[in-house]
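The records we work with from here on pair a chain with its fold. These numbers are not coordinates but entries in a learned vocabulary of local backbone shapes. To see the layout at work, look at the sequence and tokens printed below:
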Amino acid sequence: VYGFPVNQLFDMLLEIRDQYSETLLKKWAGVFRNILDSDNYSPIPVTSEETYKKVVGQFPFQDTELEKHPFPKKFPFSEFVPKVYNQIKEFIYACLKFSEDLHLSSTEVDDMIRKSTNLLLTRTLSNSLQNVIKRKNIGLTEIIINTTHLEKSCKYLEEFITNITNVLPETVHTTKLYGTTTFK
């Protein structure tokens, strides 16, 4: 309003945003490590409809064959899958929260969230999974099953980001999530 240039201030805020993203990545590295360390890598047993709905509410999973089976039944993945999925969503919310007062366009916010989420998937979560694979006491088959389900959930994460930023995926500058290649 007074005619003073504020571009340097906005540049500094964007630099702080990048540093904040790095801080979030470090925090979530610990979160993922705790989840992966505490998991038993066994399929989730379900004894009631209520428990089944709770797991499906935490993680986008659809299997008509499993739904037909009587209780008790088991999900094909372990508890780390819905926990990691929910933590990725929490990370996305944390990125969004920081960008609220930066006066960025919705496409800039969307791009920032997608880039940060890509770093979370390709670097932070990938490193955590590699550390688990290096352990001798955990079978590779269990990890492959879990990561396959996380890979399938990436489309839901993209939809989640689209819903909170209101930027359509068909937009020219929309960054795609690299989670599918990371999990492969």
In short: The beta strands are 45-46, 73-74. The mean pLDDT is 84.
